[in-house]
């Protein structure tokens, strides 16, 4: 029922919860709500859903049992029937009991934001490491949601002194998932050791990590900086593996550039935990290059989300600067000039046509001298 493969498109209704607020904040709330719903639409389409309806619901509080009040749930029943929806997607994280109670009421599949993002990660995972990381996150998500999945069996038999069939099946499934989680963690520990060995071999080299919101153009920028031919797709979370390449520049010293998994608002904690070895490429970097899609209407929100995630990863002390990408898509010179005046210490580039790439390379090289103080004595880069 949960986190199934998306081989066929399914009709989905998207639900965004809009908290009631003062009149002073209503305009902002509507604006933020529209942006959030558009992002959810992008996530749903990337996961393979056909979005047939999008709804914003105003609410003062969350119902602990069913997330929404009975009146709203009844409205949804009619809408699900009318639209012939196969699935309802909530832009919030639901508790296992809320998820189950809503499904029982609507008689259709219900998934939350966390499950949706895990589905996308599972769809895009290509390497052994990425598949292992996603599977671990998926099983950790499923484990507390097993309760009630076998209630139909418990009605078939039972009696005094006998354990119900449903209860037995539930215990078996829980034990199997726990064993699989233990095995996956061991596999990731082995992968993490391999990565640590690789990083140790590169410890005397200067490393810069490309970090930013999903679909900001990091892989395209990586190709322009290093001359690589990494997969580039105009979709969310196209890159799940960290890739390290050498900066294409004349002279010495050698500089490494790491492409990393994209960030997003409310990134599930299970994915952050599973992708520890991948995210360590950011933690062990000497410089963080924060990439922003300057053409996105919510790029201001993307900036704040990137800052928040970097703070949660504990890398706020690593030197960094902003790179505003996709300037080739901005037609009005005045808009670009205004943005440059507001962000004078940032670099403006186009990863697609390599405009501004030489300036970015110079910025990276000029950042090395002051950053050498953050390197261990035995691994300082000589300039």
For the largest beta-sheet, the strand count, sense and barrel status come to: 6 strands, mixed
What is the CA–CA distance across the termini? Answer: 57 Å
CATH top level label of the largest domain: Alpha Beta
Structural class: alpha/beta
| Mean pLDDT over all positions | 81
Order of helices and strands: EHEHEHEHHHHEHEEHHEHEHEHH
Q: What is the count of distinct domains?
A: 3
Please list the strands of the largest sheet in the order they lie side by side: 6-7-5-8-9-10
> Total helix count?
14
Roughly what percent helix?
40-55%
Report the β-strand fraction as a percent range.
15-25%
Q: Oligomeric status of the shown chains?
A: single chain
CATH homology group of the largest domain: P-loop containing nucleotide triphosphate hydrolases
What does this structure look like?
The protein is 46% helix and 15% strand. By secondary structure, the protein is α/β, with parallel strands linked by helices. It has three domains: 10-111, Rossmann fold (3-Layer(aba) Sandwich), CATH 3.40.50; 125-186; 202-379, P-loop containing nucleotide triphosphate hydrolases (Rossmann fold), CATH 3.40.50.300. Helix 3 (96-106) links the parallel strand 3 and strand 4. Helix 4 (113-124) packs antiparallel against helix 5 (128-142) and helix 5 (128-142) packs antiparallel against helix 7. Mean pLDDT is 81; it is low at 22-32, 150-162 and 371-383.
How is this fold's topology laid out?
Layout: E1 10-19, H1 26-47, E2 49-59, H2 70-83, E3 87-90, H3 96-106, E4 109-111, H4 113-124, H5 128-142, H6 151-154, H7 165-201, E5 206-212, H8 218-226, E6 243-246, E7 255-259, H9 269-274, H10 276-283, E8 287-293, H11 299-312, E9 320-325, H12 333-342, E10 347-348, H13 357-366, H14 368-371
Parallel strand pairs: 1-2, 1-3, 3-4, 5-7, 5-8, 8-9, 9-10
Antiparallel strand pairs: 6-7
